[in-house]
Design brief:
Elements: E1 4-8, H1 18-29, E2 33-45, E3 48-56, E4 67-71, E5 77-80, H2 88-98, E6 105-107, H3 110-115, E7 132-135, H4 138-148, E8 150-155, E9 165-168, H5 174-181, E10 188-192, E11 201-207, E12 210-218, E13 233-236, H6 241-256, E14 261-267, E15 270-275, H7 282-289, H8 293-304
Helix pairs in contact: 1-8, 4-5
Length: about 300
C-alpha cells in the first residue's frame, strides 16, 4: 500500500545528502509519495504540526518542484535526518515530532535521539570505550591530558570530524582549550588518543538493530582524522570478535529504542561514537560491496507503518 513519507532534511539530491537521497529514491521505487521538508519549514499551528514541503520526484534536487502545505500527522512515515550540529533548533523539531509519534512512524525515534547523544551513548558500554572526559572545566582537561599523555578533543554535538584537535601533556595549550569551550557553549569531549587510528576508524552500520555491514576509513597521509568529510578514504573490512561482541550487545538496545539507522565508530576495538542522527553508510556499502541497505530499511518500515 503506498505511503505518504515526509523526509526532514536539507536538499535531497545534493552531495551532502546522498545517503538520505538513496533512502528517498527507494521509497519512490516502491511507489510511495515523498515530501521533502527543510527543518526550518516545520511549524506548530494551533495544535497541528505542519510544514511547507516540496513533492520529491527523484530529480537531482527538489528546488522548483511543487510546494504544498502538509499536516505532518497525515503522513505515514516521517524520516528525520537533518545534519547536526544538535543545537536548540534541531532539538525543538524533535520535541515537536515526539508529540505525534504515536500517530506517525518517526525514524529514528525522536525521544531516543534526544536521550542518547552519540558521543554519550557509548558510556552504556564502558568496557568498550576509551578513557573519556566530558567537561566545561579547563583544569579537568589539563589533568586528564597529564594522566593519558596524549588526547583528542572534539565538540560534543558536531559531526564529520569538525573541530577535532590533539593535545599532549608537554604541549598543553590552556588558551586553545578555553577558546574551544567558548562562553556558555557546550562541553568538550576529551578522549585518550588511540594511536592505531592510523590503521583505520571502522564504521559498523546497523539497520533495524542488525549489522548491515562495515567499512574502514583511513586518514589521509599525515593526518589522524579518518572522517570522510576530512579527506579519509574508505575500504572493505570485516568485524573482529570483539566488535561482534559489541554488536550483539548493542543490537537489541537499538531495536527497543526505535533506532532503525545507526552507525558506530570503532578504533582498535574501542567504540568512540554511536551515531543515531544522520549516520552515513548507505553510499559506502553500495560503493564497496554493491549492497543497498535502504532495501532492508524500507522492508522494515513497510512492516511497521
Amino acid at each position: 500500500m503506498p505511503l505518504n513519507v515526509a523526509v526532514i532534511s536539507e536538499k535531497l539530491g545534493t552531495y551532502d545528502s546522498k545517503d538520505t537521497t538513496k533512502i528517498a529514491v527507494e521509497a519512490l521505487v516502491r511507489h510511495h509519495t515523498v515530501y521533502e521538508v527543510y527543518p526550518a519549514d516545520v511549524s506548530q499551528v494551533e495544535g497541528h504540526l505542519v510544514a511547507h514541503a516540496r513533492v520529491y520526484t527523484g530529480a537531482d534536487a527538489a528546488h522548483g518542484q511543487d510546494e504544498v502545505r502538509i499536516d505532518l500527522e497525515d503522513m505515514d512515515v516521517i524520516h528525520f535526518r537533518p545534519n547536526p550540529p544538535v543545537d536548540m533548533s534541531y532539538l525543538t523539531t524533535l520535541y515537536l515530532l515526539e508529540r505525534i509519534k504515536d500517530k506517525v512512524l518517526v525514524i529514528n525515534d525522536p525521544e531516543s535521539i534526544i536521550r542518547f547523544p552519540e558521543k554519550i551513548l557509548p558510556f552504556e558500554f564502558p568496557e568498550f570505550t576509551p578513557p573519556t572526559l566530558i567537561t566545561h572545566d579547563v583544569a579537568e582537561v589539563r589533568d586528564f591530558t597529564e594522566r593519558h599523555h596524549e588526547v583528542v578533543i572534539k565538540p560534543l554535538y558536531e559531526y564529520g570530524g569538525r573541530g577535532i584537535g590533539r593535545l599532549t601533556s608537554t604541549t598543553f595549550d590552556e588558551q586553545l582549550v578555553g577558546a574551544r569551550l567558548g562562553e556558555g557553549g557546550p562541553p568538550l569531549v576529551v578522549q585518550a588518543f588511540l594511536p592505531r587510528v592510523t590503521e583505520g576508524d571502522k564504521r559498523i552500520f546497523f539497520i533495524g538493530g542488525d549489522v548491515a555491514g562495515a567499512f574502514v576509513r583511513l586518514p589521509k597521509p599525515g593526518s589522524y582524522i579518518a572522517n570522510i568529510a576530512q579527506g579519509g578514504s574508505i575500504h572493505p573490512t570485516t568485524l573482529t570478535p570483539r566488535e561482534e561482541e559489541l554488536a550483539t550487545l548493542l543490537g537489541p538496545k537499538l531495536r527497543e529504542r526505535g533506532i532503525y539507522i545507526c552507525g558506530i565508530d570503532v578504533i582498535d576495538d574501542h567504540v568512540t561514537e554511536i551515531n543515531v542522527t544522520s549516520s552515513v553508510g548507505f553510499s559506502q556499502m553500495e560503493e564497496l560491496y554493491g549492497e543497498k541497505p535502504q532495501i532492508k530499511l524500507w522492508d522494515l518500515i513497510e512492516k511497521a507503518a
